[in-house]
Design a protein that fits this description.
About 45% of the residues lie in helices and about 15% in strands. The protein contains 8 helices and 8 strands; from the N terminus they run E-H-E-H-H-H-E-H-E-H-E-E-E-H-E-H. The structure holds BIS(adenosine)-5'-pentaphosphate, magnesium ion and zinc ion.
Length: about 210
C-alpha cells in the first residue's frame, strides 16, 4: 500500500529523525524542503539565494519551495513530507497538487526544542543527525555511519533558533490549526525517546 504521510512540527520536534525511520519502515520517499534547500543554498532565484533567508531563520519565498515540493511529489510513489507546508498559502498549494493519507503533528515544548536544536550535530558528508547529549556518536565529532565530520548547522545557534521558533508560531501554527479543524490531524506527544515516538506514530497510522 502506498502512503502519503505529512509530518508537522516545530523546528527540532523530530521531523527529520522520524521521517527517516518512516521512509525505511514503509518504503517511502523522504521529501524534505530543508535538506533540498540546504543542498541548493546558493542557487540564484529571482528572490535571491535560499542562504540569506535560512541563515536568518526566515522562510524562503513560497514560489521557490512550492516548485521543489511539486517536482519531488510527482516523482514519488508514496512519501513522507517534512518541513512543508509552513504557512497557509503553502497548505493550499499542497492541497491542489496531492492527496494526503495521514497528517501527523509532533508536539514538543519550547524548552525541549531549544535544547534539541542547540545540541544537534549533523554529518557534513551523509547528513546523519546526532545530539551531543541525547544521541551522541560513538566517537565525538565523527559520524558513526560514514566517518564524516560532524558540524553544527548555521541556523542552530540560540539566537537563530529563537527566530525560527517565532516564525513557526506566527506562520506554521495556523497550518496545524487548519488540519485540526478539518479533523484529520493525528497529534503525537513528541517528548519521549526517538524509538518510543516512532512506535506512537506507527500505531496511529495503522489504527
Ligand atoms: P528545516 O531544515 O525544515 O528545519 P526545521 O523545520 O526548523 O526543523 P529541524 O530540521 O531543525 O528539526 P526536525 O524537526 O527535523 O528535528 P530533528 O529530527 O533534526 O528548515 C530550515 C530552514 O529552511 C527554514 O528555517 C527555512 O528558512 C527554510 N525552509 C524549509 N522549508 C521551508 C518551507 N516549506 N518554506 C519556506 N522556507 C523553508 O531533531 C532535532 C535534534 O533533536 C537532533 O539533534 C536529534 O538528534 C534530536 N532528537 C530528535 N528526536 C529526539 C527525541 N525523541 N529525543 C531527544 N532528542 C531528539
Ligand atoms: Mg529537519
Ligand atoms: Zn555521515
Amino acid at each position: 500500500m502506498s502512503r502519503n504521510i505529512l509530518l508537522l512540527g516545530a523546528p527540532g520536534a523530530g521531523k527529520g529523525t522520524q521521517s527517516k525511520k518512516l521512509a525505511e519502515e514503509y518504503d517511502l520517499e523522504h521529501v524534505t524542503t530543508g535538506d533540498a534547500l540546504r543542498a541548493n543554498k546558493d542557487m540564484e532565484t529571482e528572490y535571491g539565494t535560499p542562504r540569506s533567508f535560512m541563515e536568518a531563520g526566515e522562510l524562503v519565498p513560497d514560489p521557490v519551495v512550492n516548485e521543489i515540493v511539486k517536482v519531488a511529489l510527482e516523482e514519488a510513489d508514496g512519501y513522507v513530507l517534512d518541513g512543508y507546508p509552513r504557512n497557509l498559502d503553502q497548505a493550499e498549494y499542497l492541497d491542489e497538487i496531492t492527496d494526503l493519507d495521514a497528517v501527523i503533528y509532533l508536539d514538543v515544548s519550547e524548552e525541549e526544542l531549544v535544547d534539541r536544536l542547540t545540541g544537534r550535530r549533523v554529518c557534513d558528508e551523509c547528513g546523519a543527525n546526532y545530539h551531543v547529549e541525547f544521541q551522541p556518536p560513538e566517537e565525538e565529532g565523527v559520524c558513526d555511519e560514514c566517518g564524516g565530520e560532524l558540524i553544527q548547522r548555521e541556523d542552530d545557534t540560540e539566537e537563530t533558533v529563537r527566530e525560527r521558533l517565532q516564525v513557526f508560531y506566527d506562520n506554521t501554527e495556523p497550518v496545524i490549526e487548519h488540519f485540526r479543524e478539518q479533523g484529520d490531524l493525528i497529534e503525537i506527544d513528541g517528548e519521549a525517546t526517538p524509538d518510543e515516538v516512532f512506535n506512537r506514530i506507527t500505531d496511529a497510522i495503522e489504527n
